[in-house]
């Protein structure tokens, strides 16, 4: 989405030649393959560990960091693999997204039209908000050293990136809609 916005704002006259159906399919395929690869590696490293005793996960759902806390053997290799997969699935995409938005902001600053700036910022602002919420909480959950106990904060962060971001998505994107803004103003009594 950020690449699409980058091309639309920074190279508007070339948009239709750059963002072809083939490019969109390639971007989707890369996303799917990288997601499948990361899930496979995470599962392989997590599920090969021995688990003994009472295997009750102190978490809302079963995810690799929660499983590692139950392992009865050294989890260093699995932690390194999870961290490396976090770089692939979290840090690499968020870096590309931030570079895209940096270029968009740099281009918009030189735009003469105040209305054009506002339109670009309102279009990109909603996507950037969702990106910050999702990737920020995901990076906090996966890109830090592992401890043997699951804190309540870890549970809240996991719920935030898995449930709350999805629930907030429609609200964040619909705030760009004039009808929704009008309805909110009526509701607020303005």
Automatic annotation (TrEMBL):
Molecular function terms from GO: G protein-coupled receptor activity; olfactory receptor activity
List the GO terms this entry assigns under cellular component, sorted alphabetically.
plasma membrane
InterPro entries, A to Z: GPCR_Rhodpsn_7TM, Olfact_rcpt
Q: How does it sit in the membrane?
A: Multi-pass membrane protein
Q: Where found in the cell?
A: Cell membrane
Task: Tell me which UniProt keywords the record has, alphabetically.
Answer: Cell membrane, G-protein coupled receptor, Membrane, Receptor, Sensory transduction, Transducer, Transmembrane, Transmembrane helix
Where the record annotates domain G-protein coupled receptors family 1 profile, the positions are 1-173
Segments spanning the bilayer are 80-104, 116-136, 156-175
SUPFAM superfamilies given for it? Family A G protein-coupled receptor-like
Main subcellular localisation:
membrane
* Name of a matching Pfam family: 7tm_4
Task: Write the protein's name.
Answer: Olfactory receptor 2D3
Recorded source organism is Camelus dromedarius
